[in-house]
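Minutes, methods subgroup
Present: GH (chair), OT, SY

1. OT presented the first of two proteins processed in the latest run. Sequence and structure tokens recorded below as shown on screen.
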Amino acid sequence: MKSKRFSVEQIVSAIKKHEAGLSIAEIAHKMGIAEGTFYAWKKKYSGLESGQVRELKQLREENEKL
């Protein structure tokens, strides 16, 4: 399986930057990703806060153990 380059916190931070007014093209260029990747992240992680991100990570780790 391919390793992940960005943490969930970094992804949420990028989404927050977009909500603050930065264009998707600028964010994608700075992070070195495709715009489609950003849209997929936005669909998956939009509306999350940092506390919710940690909780989501813990739940996913527990599910992997099961």
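2. SY then presented the second protein from the same run.
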Amino acid sequence: MQLLCLTDRDPADSLPGLDLLPHEIRTSPLSLRVPDTMADRFDAILIDGTLDPRRARTASMSLIDSTETPRVVVLSEVALPVLTTDWGVRDLLLPTASPAEIELRLRLLERPSLADETPSPAVQAAGVVIDESNFIARVYGRTLDLTYKEFELLHFLTGHPGRVFTREQLLSEVWGTDYFGGTRTVDVHVRRLRAKLGDHEGLISTVRGVGYGFARARYEETSE
């Protein structure tokens, strides 16, 4: 996930468990107003209230009418009584939250509410089934434990079996045109995906000098 952390210090100081997760994090001072277009680029906004809950409240409330990006506030246990619904946050994290808890809460932000539209149909190819509505990916019935971007990358590749994409194309489709990192992140995520696919790692093939493809051998045989 791409996270924006509103804080006046290193995010690892207010939420140490976050530093152990593979999310992409940008920071901005609590006192600096976040432009609407910038806030919408992120999957979630973390608001650090561990040092000054009042400033965290002001920062959170300033975003209520400007963006629908879900917000999560980080508060120490002694400051919990100050948190009310008018902050407009979706969830709360204690500084002591483990990496597993942080990851779970961030994933739940992406789950559709019961009031949302009919879930999207599953995408499937070559034994991989992507259930986007429930954020679940399976390979021949085995559920894969994926990060958000690993899920998005596998989802995209599974939706285009047999095709080859350059690293630049994958970066644009999965990470977005406003992503500031380089194409090496694509290689890193492909390597992690292959490891989690296990015996089926060959589903993601490397085309030297070009990029990556999904289930190329199977779909090339079918098309002949």
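Chair's summary of item 2: The chain has two domains: 2-110, 123-214.
Next meeting: continue with the remaining queue.
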